[in-house]
Amino acid sequence: MRRDVNGVTKSRFEMFSNSDEAVINKKLPKELLLRIFSFLDVVTLCRCAQVSRAWNVLALDGSNWQRIDLFDFQRDIEGRVVENISKRCGGFLRKLSLRGCLGVGDNALRTFAQNCRNIEVLNLNGCTKTTDATCTSLSKFCSKLRHLDLASCTSITNMSLKALSEGCPLLEQLNISWCDQVTKDGIQALVRGCGGLKALFLKGCTQLEDEALKYIGAHCPELVTLNLQTCLILGRESFHPSFLCNVMK
């Protein structure tokens, strides 16, 4: 929203004077201001951070950055941005979406994993620079991870699933659609350590064989969602209703 003031067009943030900000700071305790800021989106927080030094500290406080979705900025996001965010948020960050951020790779995600060890939901869908090294980092530092989306990260192999199995035992939802290097061996390694899986998306994993479903059925009793679209190697038996019901019993 913009308004004309004495013939000059200004945004609502530019119209906010230092005296106004000083009054608010005096009237409202820091804890209440932080609570108000916690309801703002990423763009608004960044704008508030430019109002004054006091608001810069409040707006960039890690407690305001527990959930971040950078999809709208995907073309502008590079590795250093993710690294800076992780250093700012630290252990406060619980949910991060980097969907479609093509400029983010393993090095930045390693720094992220080291700094944000309480992350629970991570979306890397379409981050094509992501490889097994990222999953190794997540396994080492992010044991609280529950939801992970690696769809279209085509460099992911069985090594990633083995790493997740060893370090992310709380994993409930995993999307590895179109990760076509994954085989039944990777699925076997995954389910042995992540038996609490409730949703598993394997669309486009064209190297999977019938044994993969048997491993899932044997180790994932809580599974309620299983996507097997275009898994061409699977035999007809795998898609028989009685077999699928046994897998997802």
Automatic annotation (TrEMBL):
Q: Where is the F-box domain?
A: 22-68
- Domain of life of the native organism: Eukaryota
List the GO terms this entry assigns under cellular component, sorted alphabetically: SCF ubiquitin ligase complex
Gene3D superfamilies, A to Z? Ribonuclease Inhibitor
| Keyword Magnesium recorded | no
Record carries keyword Ligase: no
Which Pfam families does this entry report, sorted A to Z?
DUF7885 (PF25372), F-box-like (PF12937)
Q: Name one GO biological process term.
A: SCF-dependent proteasomal ubiquitin-dependent protein catabolic process
Name the InterPro entries on file: F-box_dom, FBXL15_LRR, Leu-rich_rpt_Cys-con_subtyp, LRR_dom_sf
Q: Which UniProt keywords apply?
A: Leucine-rich repeat, Repeat, Ubl conjugation pathway
The protein's name is: F-box and leucine rich repeat protein 20
